[in-house]
Amino acid sequence: MAAVDDGDKEVVHLPELGCLELRSHPLRGRGVFTRNPISKGTLVHISPVLVFGREEYRDYGKHTCLDHYTYCWRGGQYALALGLGSMFNHEPSGSENVGFVRDMDRALIKYVALRDITAGEELCICYGPNVWFEVVTDNSSSKSATAESPPETPLDFLHSFQL
Hints:
The structure is a single chain. The chain is mainly beta. The chain has helices at residues 54-59, 154-158, and strands at residues 20-25, 29-34, 43-52, 70-72, 78-81, 89-90, 98-103, 108-113, 122-125.
């Protein structure tokens, strides 16, 4: 059997954290939580996506509950994240503890811890500034930057990775 090249577009090595679980949040509904601490910079999850063409989404997808779970994709397309990717709840920009990067060439979304995350904490991403629901901010374990570490935006942090 030939060795697998890590640069191969056909092979995606999935993180094996073994500590993520779906739980019901009293205000936000289902969400992703961790049983163990997760360190800043950890690749938390990789979601394959189903890509919908612009016309297909306009004619069908946006008229269903899928509309609440899709990501904008290139060329006016939309993508539905499979796995846990559609289960991360929202926190406003600067309060989220997980960031994401769209790998459009391989039809994936990669989720990375933006800060240290404590056991029992909900993992949340930022959906952007224009959400279609009342924002419930209940990520009580959110940590702010300390004097020893200058604040950085989630995008600054994510750009430091070769994903």
